[in-house]
């Protein structure tokens, strides 16, 4: 009979994305065998991420200060803004080391069947950001699936009348795929071969 605390740990670990029952058990046994300091450091790291990490006041990326590192970095080109669905997509693009502009994270895509409309995304904040007149190009880097394409089309219709160049990352990514899981070379090619909408 397995002890209740171990069962609870396995149950909580199994709730993580991509973690099944067997992997959760392996992780739980690893934590159990590790020195006590490791378990305390792990629990402290989880506590700190929940207490200290929040959305950037400008781009809605993740940060532990008012503005994220991307927004604070003066070397980044403020004239080019890349719009992504999630922070994971932002990090995938950042790993290519090709993009030197700034970001805006929508925190989702339009999905009427799931009840996600423009009001649930950071679209209003995007339009507010554009009011300062610094942005000359917006790269729409939503996923190449039905919802991502619909979101890109919706944003294009909003942004084109503002006189800002709107481009879409190139179709080097498979339809139905996620930016987060694409390799660096494919993402770099998609960024460099983007097209105007």
TrEMBL record:
Zinc fingers (C4-type), renumbered ranges: 56-71
Sequence ranges assigned to domain Toprim in this UniProt record: 79-174
The entry's keywords: DNA damage, DNA recombination, DNA repair, Metal-binding, Zinc, Zinc-finger
Keyword Metal-binding: yes
Keyword Zinc: yes
Gene3D superfamilies according to UniProt: 3.30.60.80, 3.40.1360.10, 6.10.250.240, RecR Domain 1
Pfam families found in the cross-reference section: RecR_C (PF21175), RecR_HhH (PF21176), RecR_ZnF (PF02132), Toprim_4 (PF13662)
InterPro entries registered for this protein in UniProt: DNA_Rcmb_RecR, Hlx-hairpin-Hlx_DNA-bd_motif, Rcmb_RecR, Rcmb_RecR_Znf, TOPRIM_dom, TOPRIM_RecR
Cross-referenced SUPFAM superfamilies: Recombination protein RecR (SSF111304)
SMART domains from the UniProt entry: HhH1, TOPRIM
UniProt family annotation: Belongs to the RecR family.
HAMAP family listed in its UniProt record: RecR (MF_00017)
Known role: May play a role in DNA repair. It seems to be involved in an RecBC-independent recombinational process of DNA repair. It may act with RecF and RecO.
Protein's name in the database: Recombination protein RecR
Species this chain originates from: Archangium lansingense
